[in-house]
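Cross-posted from the bioinformatics board.
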Amino acid sequence: MTQPSDVTDQTIRDRLVPFPKPHFLAASDLDPFVTPQLLDLGDAFVDFNRQSSKALDLLHGRTVVNLFFENSTRTSSSFEIAAKRLGADVVTMPVGSSSVKKGETLIDTAVTLNAMKPDILVIRHSASGAAELLSQKVGCAVVNAGDGRHEHPTQALLDLLSMRRAFGDVTSLTVAICGDITHSRVARSNVALLQMMGARVRLIGPPTLVPGDADRWGCEVFHDMREGLQGCDVVMMLRLQLERMAGALVPSTREYFRFWGLDREKLAWAKPGAKVMHPGPMNRGVEIDSDVADDLDVSLIQDQVEMGVAARMAVLASLSARWGGYAR
Amino acid sequence: MTTVAIINARLLDPATDYDGPGGLLIEDGRIVRVVHGASHIDADQIINADGLCLAPGLIDIRVKTGEPGAEPKETLKSASLAAAAGGVTTIVVQPDTDPAVDDPAMIDFIQRRGAALNLVNVRAAGAATKALEGQRMAEIGLMDEAGALYFTDGDKVIVNSRTLQRVMSYAAAFNALIACRPADPWLTEGAVAASGELATRLGLSGSPAIAERIGLERDLALVEQTGARFLVDQISTEGALETLARARAKGLEVAVSVSINHLCFNEVDIGDYRTFYRLDPPLRSEADRQALIEAVREGLIDVITSAHAPAPAEDKRRPFAEAAPGAIGLETLLPAALTLHHEAGLDLLDVLRPLTQGPAALLGLDAGVLAEGAPADLVLFDPGAPIIVDADALHSKSKNSPFDGRRLQGKVIGTWVGGRKVH
């Protein structure tokens, strides 16, 4: 790994790899060959981001539009910062509060934006498949920042980067993804990417929050944390949306925490030295105890946020590398 | 430690299929020796049973009290006294109190109150949904930890199939038992009697037998999909028995209970609007009753309950359709069940099995058996002694017994709970 002081424009350009697909819609757009290269690039960006001067011009003159139909602070800022550090012009549109209310359809919005000639569209939408649909209607690259309960591929990439930096190698890891699997796009993307890279994935949660056919994803399914966490290197907790209570999926937050919330006692069931992850934002005392979440010896949660910017820079830079204009 | 021996008894143990002479040695609340055949047992205290029947104490899994919320109707104490007098050593109280038992603290409350009475074992069933409203799931995991034996919305049907599906699916993670009344909510809406010629003549709105079958078909389909442990609560019709048999033939493991009332009475008993026979589910035809008795004979019924449901006079002395449904039955459970032996010719062990070993196995209790190490929860009874039921003499605070004035055979002579004589 390079030292922070070593990271120059050229270091980055040397590691630049063209993204394998025109869009990044799902974890399956990656492959086992390019993924480690993207992680190498991500590593370089991590070091670069730790320098005091963080301006590059890889995306100079390019326009990145953040199109967030769902409210999100952390993901939209992460993309915005990533694009700005690469030198792009960034427009973040919280569409949730504008055109949708005027009745404009997703495609209308897309066509309108397309006419403004952006280079990359980052989209988050509450409907599964929205990013895919958008990608068919626009002439620029589309990055899926979360579509319904389908995929959130940059999250999986940043999680993988966090894991590789913590463990060195991800191919031999056993990762437990815990909580509301059914409604989680983070889980779907992580399952796909981790399995692609050779890691073993377990899914743990109440039967009402783990899809009945999840075992056919090639994961082991557990409803009991003690059984499921046995021998795990990574415990990835998912956010429990509080509206799940009204839908009779789980009875109460206190019961959820008692059986599926990660605390010190449950963490002890995992492999010694196991790391804790969470895509955020956390419900403290519901799916995770602060005692564990804030313990920097076991928690990668802060790292994940840092890796988020680096991984997204890697994605944006490699997408632009397909266009060829950057090379010097 | 003092030891007590009960000798010269006719031991009746459905769990081991033993019906013959013998005796027991009790120490420290548990059975420490079971002796088959007539032989003397040395002990500090010896009770001579004189050939009377000694069986595991009855386990009644469907008991309503009014505690908390309606104590004038029945308290845990009055119900426990009635149970002890009836040879019932374990009662499982229903969650439909006020407030409902839908919280681990309520389970704890009932168990503590019950234990403080020092009479019979008082256990609780938890609500399946919050406030029995059929909307939000109750805290099944926490109540399970607190000691709830099973989960049910009692007389209420969980109308929303998706909610029931989620309850079943969730409960499976704890291997918790879910019990549901099989009934289609729309076909049974407003019904106060079984559909049929009698109800029509009396001008009472009836619940058709198919309502039970339709409800059961739905519940069983959900059990099949979710893999939940399931109890069909209070089956009452021949058609539903057939549905159940089909599901079991396909390999579905479900338990079923029947109330003592549906084994003893039929729709004709409501006669001229006798509200003590207004039950829920309503009393059915004689063909249904006979089919239920045959099912008990064939061992297809896991549990017989008293369906103990106290209702004070002011709730019963009303026009039939406005009267509260339900009947008390704890104290009369054993003699009423013995009518299956005396009148229908069932073997005594087959009558006792769904009252002892059946519920114990279903709920994972170590009681319900005459075996070394088992708790000394026992009933000593004279199976042939004639009695005339006098509702006013029963221990329940409410006197709504449909057996009032009936001549039955079978008298409880003594009841022991944990080796302690409570009656």
